[in-house]
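Researcher: Hi, I'm a grad student and pretty new to this. My advisor asked me to get structures for two proteins we've been looking at. I'm not sure of the right format, so I'll just paste the first sequence and hope you can take it from there.
Model: That works fine. Here's the first sequence with its structure tokens right after it:
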Amino acid sequence: MPNEDKFDDNKQEQSLGHEESVDVGKLENYNGMGMKLMEKMGYKGGGLGKNEQGILNPIEAKLRDKYSGLGFNISNETTTPLPSLETEKKSEPGEGIQPVVGRKKRRRYKNITSMLDRVQEENALALDSLAQYFRHMHKRYVEYYKSCKLACVAYSYALPLFIRVFQGLDPLRNPSHGLELVSEWKTLLLGDDSFGIQVISSPYTHLVSEVVLPAVRKSGINTWQARDPEPMLRFLDSWKKLLPSSVLATILDTIVMPKLLSAVDTWEPHRETIPIHTWVHPWLPLLGHKMEREGIYQIVRFKLSNALGTWHPSDGYAYAILSPWKALFDSDSWQQLIYRYIVPKLKVVLRDDFQVNPRSQNLAQFYWVMNWASAIPIHLMVDIMQIFFTKWLTVLYHWLCSNPNFGEVRKWYLDWKELIPKELLANESIRYKLHCGLCMMNQAVECMEVVQPCLKENISYIRASEQRKFETQQKAAASSQQQATASLGGAVNAYGVNEISVKELIEAYTQDHGLLFKPKSGRMHNGHEIYTFGNVSIIIDSLNQKVYAQNAETWSLETLEQLLELQNKFLSKRR
């Protein structure tokens, strides 16, 4: 530790005006730094002792003004030699402030240069002892540490020592190496925020760029693999408070991103067992938007599409690699991917392989479908579940008609309800299907005729109140126009229940399929208001119970299922 008494300002007050001359040659040993510091005071080679009292050349006002005291007169100091102590004693009060301030300043400069000379003489210093010298100067001479840019001096001494410390270092294997040492020097090289850590030209930023960055670059390029992100992430987390933003950006842009792009480009989902999101998603906090701009998401989406072409619902790997990307892909891209590659296969497995059997139930296919409930958009999932409920309600109807044990029926119903995910139970259409089953159970318990709920031809369901009962299926119309009329409105009267309007049917249908249904403000065609059915424009002829959809330049008569097909075709074209 430096000898503080040697540079004690109070002790040197006793010898003001009797200072020994400075050895100029010794100052030059510090690569000219000592002379540069003296030149800041106007020193041109003369001594500072009593034999050569005062400053030989004037100090420029711009250099002295920052440290001047109250009442300081620059013109007097630059033209008049410093008075002796004897003269000061005879001066009036206040007249001796100027020379005292000048002598204190010179004395502190001299102390600093003496310490720098000592550092120069002890050229084998280690980083910890070197830090002690500069810590002492930083604490004792705060303003001078800034004005003389001693942080730059500290950097010039410390850099060669730091290079030796970090030589041969693999920071990805040992991220804590040198961490405390750099942290200790951070304050000394920033100089109490005279340089900011984010300023590229600061000594601290230069040190990290010259010492730490090369080691990270060498290890990152030569040995680090993007499929194993932990070593690089562990290093960045350990050094996050010490890495200037420019250095962090360099690591991410020149090491991490090129490695990630290369790894994603060579990723083969058919052969690799580790899901890609496990080594891409950890970079989202640092590179989320940049990965999207660089096309990583697009590459992943393309490769997932190819992999899903041969996928079977029994293979859970597809869900494992696909579902984590739902939040990253835009909603349209995600829906198109699901609609094209997932929904058709889930429908097939429910329609062809799944059976409802109260005596011996196999739930494998049902679980395959339910596993996707959180990943598939709700309107597509509701559409899939129509296949399940058609089978489920039919089996329940026949069971209730065979004088069953109602306790078993009740348990069977509750068990099935428990198997349906909460996000599906929150949907009105799903709740309605379960309610239909409950109504049949109540009819059987009350010894009433059990009425099987039926769906009208070409309509997935009708939203109706609990009082509405469905007894028979409407007969198909002879022509396509009669069929459309029946499916949209005429069927309601065939059941002997209160009529509901075509608009109400469409509103219920779109709601259960998660589609938007609302009028287009101010848009009319042939006196009819134009509505939006998802992305399809329609008009409703309430008088004739018909619905027309806009197709190019014409309007064509459509059923509800045909409208849904038009909506799905629109989504397919946008992929």
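Researcher: Oh nice, that was easy. Here's the second one.
Model: And its structure:
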Amino acid sequence: MMQDGAAAAPVGSEIFRRFQPDSPEKIQRRHEAKEEEQQRRKEKNIEVAEEDLPKPASDLEAGKPLPFIYGDPPPEFLNTPLEELDPFYQSEQTFIVLGKGNTIFRFNAEPACYLLSPCSRLRIAAIRILIHSYPFLFIMVTILANCAFMTLSNPPAWSKIVEYVFTFIYTFEATVKVFSRGFCMGKFTFLKDPWNWLDFMVISMAYLTEFVDLGNVSVLRTFRVLRALKTITTIVGALMQSVKKLGDVMILTVFCLSVFALIGLQLFMGNLRQKCVLIPPQFINHTSDIGQGYDVNDTNVNNTGSGFDYHEYINNPGTVGSGQLDALLCGNSSDAGVCPEGYVCLKAGRNPNYGYTSYDSFGWAFLSLFRLMTQDFWENLFQLTLRAAGKTYMVFFVVVIFLGSFYLINLILAVVAMAYAEQNEATRAENQKKEDEYQQILDLLRTRRRSRQPVGQRSQRNRIQRRTHQR
């Protein structure tokens, strides 16, 4: 079905009207009439289906080229405020400007900063600077140059002056945007665009750091390069749609990881702290007495009364693990790791990998299971756990790897692939819909053109067409 705005659009330059000083009053009257119509429907309990509600025309969105049905606007209508073409926005305080390539730019029709009306020369000049391609390229080059200066380990003495130049350029760019769009009140203003939030924060921090020491916040300027992503909004939109569809999969993934983390917590709690400790000379013949009656975590007990500091001994790298980064793990089960001769298996010291690998709490167990699922150096965790707990628990790791790494990860990838496929299908359907609408419009124009021709010319043309078919 054709959109009303596209089907009823006249052809030629009569569709383009300059935005005049009295245009806001016309927009206000249309807005009031629209509200009265809605109030009348509400009083009569007339409900309108959501799909029948007026929506912005997809062909007339900001950033898109002007549809060909409108023709090429006269040169005097380029880079100047025009009244809205989209019927949806004709009752809103907005106007459009056609830039290079007939690209549509939409602005707020209310006075920018309560001072600059759409007909103001200063605002028109700011709009022309904003929509021109050269200033955008200049800003991108400035951002890249700023990033290059940030890579200098020993910046020269005049680098502070360069910083002021960069700040001035960014401030000028933001000022142009505010003068052309307004600051924050109304639609299509400066802060209504999330891409401008980072610019505002960077500029604010640049001036604030001149008076208050906030550290090196200039690194935020590098993120301004991300504005180039604005030109690939289709890909960004597809990515956001895929993230929305991942909700159920993420809940399932977190639930499975939580269950496995609880199992790991019950099976392996404290096992990774079991280490091979060198037997002290005075206990060489009484290894069962080492640590007997002493809690290795009790800091109030430091010696046995014979001058032997137990805690200092078991925390000495020379006695635990033979000076290695992580001590050799061991276990008490029959299939666990066994200490070499001259060492005894004790629970002491921290967990492996600087204490980051353990099952001693739900959080650490969850992190370990997440590491298994993503297969991030998982073989180290696998070997440490089997040596401390026993080879029997290999079954646990087989289940986690198959269900977590192979099933859940592939399920996430499948959802992302489906989201991209749906996005592509929606894009193709939208393009096909546009082609059908344009074909209907062309057929309508041909019908109008034929109806305007004299009867004699139409009959003569029909006779020529019949003769052509007979041949």
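Researcher: Is there anything I should tell my advisor about the second?
Model: You could mention this: Confidence is low (pLDDT under 50) at residues 1-13, 291-305.
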